[in-house]
Design brief:
By secondary structure, the chain is mostly beta strands. It contains five helices and 22 strands.
């Protein structure tokens, strides 16, 4: 039997379009350096015994719940068992190819146990992704005295050094090197960043990323990613992404679609510098995309009622170009997030394990008027091995005046060529 990890080939695409799909699940036990030393498959056997929630947001994106059969008490939480303070595990969902005896596994994240409850012979574990070490969820690394990042520090170096801080037991917060946008190695902090006692280190990551129009999160393999959304050469990365799957209202894999119409949507956001001396600079990001239902040209100006003007710190810098650019990046990031929150489409689908947030899918729906329209995934809830709930936003509604190209389509209902080394045709 072969096991493939995070691979989407023709055979896999064909398998998950069949009327009957055999899904599977496993939990891999990791040490602090994320080396695997065991796995749990058989003891999580019922499709109602686990959920995985993934949300497109800063910081913590992934949470999970799984219930295990524990007749032998081998999972009962204590220091010598897999589930305890700071202990990690990695979840996979997969598709079993019975004809060839292979399994396609897709990682769903690395988690730390946040709490557990035990009944006779049953154990339920709740987990959060590794950002829980940083944001206070796991009650780790509360600042005891003022923590300061000096102005002029490389943002990439700040992130790496922060992750290597000691948890207090001789182990680093995160021994896995993060994936950081190369431009952040050249960008310096323009002011001192100070965290007061009682706050958490995660605030540094979110503050830096949001101010520079970037996302910070842990990916499916448990690696921190710091990635810019807006660059000068590619201002809106999601417009150029190919579709990972196509959903059609004439097929059974697209169930109970609904659209949320928030009438208090926001189509412009102003960000200004907070300097008390010298000239104050600002930038206003606007949504005047003619395809967007809340474009200024359609509904007039609608600001952020909760925070009409967002101020960012600029320290002692007097560089006009730098200050305006920082305002621009932060304003565009905030406007994108607000738009995604108010223009949501949701539906239920059979489990398609390779999908993740911030990936693009296409939808055909005659009622809502979608014709292979590209959508950006905002959240996924996996409920056992049978179904997933997906929330998306139409790429063509997002705040950009760039014409969104038609996303690359997934070829459907085509069986792959027979394996020349096999006696069967791959599915008969």
């Amino acid at each position: 039997m072969a096991e493939y990890y995070n691979l989407t080939d023709d055979r896999y695409n064909w398998l998950i379009q069949q009327p009957v799909v055999t899904h599977c699940f496993k939990c891999e036990i990791l040490d602090h350096n994320e080396r695997s030393y065991g796995e749990i498959i058989r003891d999580v056997s019922d499709d109602e015994y686990y959920t995985i929630n993934i949300n497109n947001q800063q910081g913590m994106r992934r949470t999970c719940t799984l219930t295990m059969i524990d007749v032998d008490k081998k999972y009962l939480p204590n220091y010598n068992h897999p589930f305890w303070y700071n202990k990690k595990f990695k979840l996979y969902t997969g598709v079993h190819d019975y004809d060839k005896g292979n399994v396609y596994w897709f990682a769903q994240g690395v988690f730390i146990c946040s709490n557990a409850s035990a009944q006779r012979y049953m154990l339920t574990i709740n987990g959060v992704d590794k950002f829980g070490f940083l944001d206070g969820t796991l009650n780790t690394h509360m600042i005891q005295e003022t923590y300061k990042v000096e102005a002029g520090s490389s943002i990439g170096e700040v992130i790496r050094c922060t992750l290597m801080l000691d948890l207090g037991n001789g182990l680093p917060i995160d021994p896995i090197l993060p994936l950081i946008d190369p431009s952040f190695e050249q960008i310096k902090t323009i002011n001192d960043i100070t965290l007061d006692p009682g706050t958490y280190l995660g605030e540094i990551f979110i503050q830096l990323a949001s101010m520079l129009g970037a996302d910070v999160y842990y990916d499916v393999n448990g690696r921190m990613v710091v990635r810019r959304i807006f660059n000068d050469d590619i201002p809106f990365f999601y417009i150029y992404k190919g579709a990972q799957w196509h959903f059609d209202d004439l097929k059974s894999g697209y169930i109970e679609p609904s659209t949320n119409y928030e009438m208090d949507g926001c189509n412009y956001i102003m960000v200004a510098t907070d300097n008390t001396e010298g000239e104050v600079y600002s930038y206003t990001a606007i949504n005047d995309n003619p395809h967007s239902p809340i474009a200024i040209s359609h509904v007039g100006y609608r600001g952020n009622k909760d925070n009409p003007i967002t101020y960012i710190p600029v320290g002692d810098t007097t560089d006009k170009e730098v200050m305006i650019d920082r305002c621009r990046q932060h304003a565009e990031y905030l406007l994108l997030q607000k738009t995604c929150m108010t223009l949501a489409v949701s539906f239920t689908a059979p489990l398609i394990p390779h999908l993740d947030v911030e990936e693009v899918i296409t939808i055909t729906d005659s009622y809502f008027g979608y014709d292979k329209s590209p959508f950006l995934i905002q959240s996924i809830t996996i409920s056992g091995i049978q179904a997933m709930q997906i929330a998306v936003v139409n790429v063509q509604w997002l705040p950009t005046d760039i014409e969104a190209p038609m996303a690359i389509e997934i070829e459907e209902d085509v069986e792959p060529e027979p394996d020349p080394d096999s006696g069967n045709g791959g599915g008969d």
